[in-house]
Amino acid sequence: YHYMNNNIPPILKKYENLLLKTEKKYISITTESVAETLGVNQSKLGGIPYWPKDKEFLKINGKMPILIAQINFQEINEIQELNHFPNKGILQFYYNHESDMFGLSFDNDVPSEIKVIYHENVENEYYLFDEEDKSVLLDFDMQPFQNELKLNFSLKSELLGLSDEVNAKKYQYDLNNISDDESDELCDSFSNSGSKIDGYAYFTQYDPRSLDDDKDWILLLQLDTDDNLMFGDSGVANWFITKEDLINRNFNNVFFNWDCC
Description:
The protein is 13% helix and 25% strand. It has helices at 16-21, 131-137, 165-170, 180-189, 243-247, and strands at 24-33, 44-45, 65-72, 90-96, 114-119, 149-158, 195-197, 217-224, 236-242, 255-259.
């Protein structure tokens, strides 16, 4: 369920003014399983990534990475509707292929098992992977999908639910006085679930970000379980970036989380 045309459920009408203040645009993502091999420049989940021809391929803690997602911004006609996002180039999300948690680590002393790479300028000639590297990249046993997936994009808008606690705090949701029925309706009507770029975040458990800092987090990418994709048991993955880092195209400090039921 996504907000459209002021469709506020009757039980939430008394919160209408507050809810409408939270309206936010985002790029909705749907996945599609296709028979053909997708091109190296295409937006996709999994498969062979684009990489500059004369640049050594990425390693994560000395290990070969797996591409989990690749976004070609030139394929998103309405990307300019989002604040601070690039309107060209390719953004890639990787994790160490030996990680059994899709790159998630609960130990702050362990080096990050994920990398987010941005290629601002995409060249016509690209890196050619050898067969050994391809065997790792195309090994879907350690990935949350069974084959590479095509991505389709559309512009939508949504209102803030309860899952995104950081933004709930920002908008000063008065949760002390909300009834159980109102809370259930808010969660059901505005769950903020689904795969997307920007918008509000959804979690199956709780918001892992600190509510005590003043970081201005932006949802860089959210991948949610669908017919082609599943993290754990019907889980969801989120990559967050601060507004300052996104404006500066600095993807070295991305915060990654996934959880499941």
